[in-house]
Amino acid sequence: MPSCDPLLSVKNLVCSRPEGDPIFSNVSFVVNEGDICVLRARSGAGKTTLLKCLAHLNLYQGTVEYRGKQPKSYGVPIYRTHVQYIPQRPSLLPSTPRDFLETLSEFHARRKQGHVDLQHAVDVASAWGVDEELWDRAWNTLSGGEAQRLALAIGFGLHSAEILLLDEPTSALDLDTSAKVEDTLIEEVKNPDTMLKAIVWITHSEEQALRVGNRFLHLSASGIDEEATPTNGA
Ligand SMILES: Nc1ncnc2c1ncn2[C@@H]1O[C@H](COP(=O)(O)OP(=O)(O)OP(=O)(O)O)[C@@H](O)[C@H]1O
Q: pLDDT of 110-140, one tens digit each?
């Protein structure tokens, strides 16, 4: 019988600065299959911090459950392949995109997470205008937009994430390239034959929020509100 648990369930999340004062508290929401949840808030409100909590990369209080179970019951590394955070600035990674993809794919193969299609990542990046030679350049020599597209393509190529947590994924891209990336991501969520089932997507752009989102979440220090349309100037 199919599970009736939401894909991701977040209850009473609190995340604090090292000094102890909370960045946000009382954050509760669910993510269901087919959702592209746009997450907006003023700068510094804690959007990146929230995505890192969801990926179990930050300490938090409260509960995060993926398909009804907490990250530790999957093993945190496995959990992170299913609920995958893609940072805004991948250029801080060591080595090259190809090395990173191969390292991750070896990890996935070892854990028998299914087929690891390296060529798929290369093809997706090409469709987004990334030259193949960039796969072998050091991350820190790539432009912000090149690094951003390669990091996203790696997320796709691994075919293991059911939920992508995207931190301003097109912030470094021009409008045309951004539109291509948006279309690929939306199609991937809509297509029942692909692994990807939902996205939580941070954007400062109201226009982009309206293009990609079917749910609109607004984060503040006191919690998260769901809105019918994205908040102006978030
Ligand atoms: N490791 C840390 N130590 C201290 N403060 C931190 C740490 N990480 C984040 N913060 C603080 O937490 C707050 C939220 O940061 P976060 O990056 O999550 O905000 P954001 O909403 O994503 O911002 P932006 O829209 O500018 O990217 C900020 O005030 C930030 O300075």
A: 565 555 667 888 999 999 999 999 999 999 8
Q: Where are the domains of the chain?
A: 8-227
Token reading at 96: 């090259």
Environment class of 143 (CB within 10 Å of its CB; exposed 0-12, middle 13-18, buried 19+): exposed
CA of 49 to the centre of ligand 1 (A): 6
Rounded to an integer, what distance in angstroms lies between the CA atom of residue 13 and that of residue 136? 40
Please name the fold of domain 8-227.
Rossmann fold (3.40.50)
Length of the chain: 234
* DSSP 3-state of 200: strand
Distance 134 CA to ligand 1 centre (A): 30
Q: Is the ipTM of this complex over 0.90?
A: yes
Residue 84 to residues 7, 198, 211, Cα–Cα distance (Å): 13, 11, 22
